[in-house]
């Protein structure tokens, strides 16, 4: 059984670009909504979760309750260098919208703009 060209590209490269998947208006609405979500987000020190894509990924995400409980919620995940190593808090020199690596995992089911 052969894979569709899209699926084969995704399997080979780890991403897929679908042109015209959303209209310009839908894209603008999602960008505006994400800005609103980030602006309203107050990083909780108890939920400072770093999203990794390196050799430390399995250990980082595999034991992280905040990450593992995100399937039906909107959770924010930091870049590895965004947190102060000593305090584990967001570094004061890193704006929170630049500190994010990922927003997930239930974004598409928990937010009406992304659900649409």
Structure description:
- The chain is mainly α.
- The chain contains seven helices and two strands; from the N terminus they run ααααβαβαα.
- It has helices spanning 5-13, 24-40, 57-62, 65-68, 96-99, 107-110, 112-115, and strands spanning 74-78, 100-105.
- The chain has a two-stranded antiparallel sheet with strand order 1-2.
- The longest helix is centred in the N-terminal third of the chain and has 17 residues, at 24-40.
- It is globular.
- The model has no long low-confidence stretch (mean pLDDT 84).
Summed up, the helix count is 7
Distance between the termini: 33 Å
**Major beta sheet, specifics?**
2 strands, antiparallel
Order of helices and strands: HHHHEHEHH
Question: Secondary structure elements and their pairing?
Answer:
Elements: H1 5-13, H2 24-40, H3 57-62, H4 65-68, E1 74-78, H5 96-99, E2 100-105, H6 107-110, H7 112-115
Antiparallel strand pairs: 1-2
Summarize the structure.
This protein has 116 residues and is mainly alpha-helical.
Give short descriptive properties of this protein.
9% strand; globular; two-stranded antiparallel ribbon; 116 residues; mainly alpha
């Amino acid at each position: 059984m052969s894979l569709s060209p899209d699926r084969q590209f995704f399997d080979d490269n780890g991403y897929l670009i679908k042109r015209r998947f959303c209209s310009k208006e839908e894209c603008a609405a999602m960008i505006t909504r994400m800005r609103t979500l980030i602006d309203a987000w107050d990083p909780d020190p108890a939920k400072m979760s770093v999203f990794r894509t390196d050799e430390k990924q399995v250990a980082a995400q595999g034991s992280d309750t905040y990450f593992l409980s995100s399937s039906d919620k909107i959770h924010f995940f930091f870049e590895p260098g965004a947190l102060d190593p000593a305090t584990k808090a967001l570094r004061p020199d890193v704006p929170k919208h630049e500190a994010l690596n990922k927003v997930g995992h239930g974004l598409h089911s928990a937010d009406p703009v992304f659900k649409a």
